Amino acid sequence: MSGVQIRKYQEEDAESVKEVFTLGMSEHIPSSFMHVLKQPLTQMVLMCTFCALVTSSKSFLLPILAVTLLLAGARLGIIYMFNRYIEATLSGDLRDVTNSYLRSQDSCFWVAESEGRVVGTVACLPAENAPGCLELKRMSVRRSHRGRGIAKALCRTVADFARDRGYAAVFLQTSMVATDAQKLYEHMGYKKIKEFVLPDFFGKIINFTLIEFRLDLQPDGQND
After folding, report:
1. Which Gene3D superfamilies does the record cross-reference, listed alphabetically (predicted)?
2. For the whole model, what pTM was predicted?
């Protein structure tokens, strides 16, 4: 954490915050594609397509081409899913961070700054589906600055903020492919409370799971 300052968001941070978020989300595309390849349904479709075309065409060229096209289509589907979420977020709460997070005493948005550059972000606001909890959102750290304790410090910032305002817990959602984030939250004392498949059509097809975590806060700050 040497040389890194955690401070409240300022208007001049807007583009940097969007960049950190977009880069962080895009990193999950390769692991999500690998998840799709491991699904029994995917393997069955690829195998059936390959065998059917080998049998009908008496050639390996056509089935190999067909399987390649199916894989390319699956990857494009993953990219579309992530890009849709990124665009929705950029046009949603990140379009006006001040209005989304800094108008209420129970919500806030912080950035981690190093040498004048935004290298990490985190936010929180009252959780819609968890009464008495604050929801941690928009946690991201640039790849170049990971391993320095920045994410842990951002987590503590949210926990301290929630505790100071009398909230009982901090709640968050992350995805099954964000394995580093899951390890971080568990290290910080969060407990996994629920897993569910992304409710849209493509999420159900690829069995893309979201995970909910909860940190029950101690008044004396023992969570730290």
Report:
1. 3.40.630.30
2. 0.88
